[in-house]
Automatic annotation (TrEMBL):
InterPro entries: Formyl_transf_N, Formyl_transf_N_sf, GART, GART_AS. The gene is purN. Its EC number is 2.1.2.2. It comes from the Bacteria. This is Phosphoribosylglycinamide formyltransferase. CDD domains: FMT_core_GART (cd08645). It comes from Caenimonas aquaedulcis. HAMAP family: PurN. (6R)-10-formyltetrahydrofolate binds at residues 68, 93-96, 110. One of its GO terms (cellular component) is cytosol. Pathway: Purine metabolism; IMP biosynthesis via de novo pathway; N(2)-formyl-N(1)-(5-phospho-D-ribosyl)glycinamide from N(1)-(5-phospho-D-ribosyl)glycinamide (10-formyl THF route): step 1/1. The record marks 148 as: Raises pKa of active site His. Residues 1-185 form the Formyl transferase N-terminal domain. N(1)-(5-phospho-beta-D-ribosyl)glycinamide binds at residues 11-13.
Amino acid sequence: KNIVILISGGGSNMAAIVRAAQQGDWRRTLDAQVAAVISNRADAGGLAFAKEHQIPTEVVDHKRFPTREAFDAELAAAIDRRQPSLLVLAGFMRILTPGFVQRYEGRMVNIHPSLLPAFPGLHTHRRAIEEGCKFSGATVHRVTAELDHGPILTQAAVPILPDDTEEALAARILTQEHLLYPRAIAALLPSL
Ligand code: GRF
């Protein structure tokens, strides 16, 4: 089955998914072809990794479009050319229009670096530390019209340690994201 991954930055989650799809022992469980990696930024670090791994890449620069609707229409056209069973958001930093969300309803997932429904949006690690939370983590969820909401598919929890910094917590969570996201996709794909 084809999957398309949307990124905006470093793309370490995308890289983890590509590795899981390409490596021998994973192929049996993550039976997926990464048909394209699409970025809204030409300077997204993850594009180089995708190219090195023979994944087709595309840039749809949001700044070229007058409205979110126009950007989303072009993005949808780029996605649909690859005929994906599943659309994977991996550090994709654009708010999606309701029309776009509806188009991929039931076949679009996102990963967020908190234990949703706690701390949707930005600065999750800082907020979790400031609140005195003892645990945080990562959530893979289906995408609905509301940002960082939608039915939860799976989560991983990590401890927040005394004197944790935002950076230390982010790194601890990101390590878990790289394990969680390929597994969540492998679990979901057979039903699509
Ligand atoms: C991850 O923490 C992800 O949960 C969040 O943005 C970060 C993206 O990192 N949505 P990367 O681009 O996958 O390295």
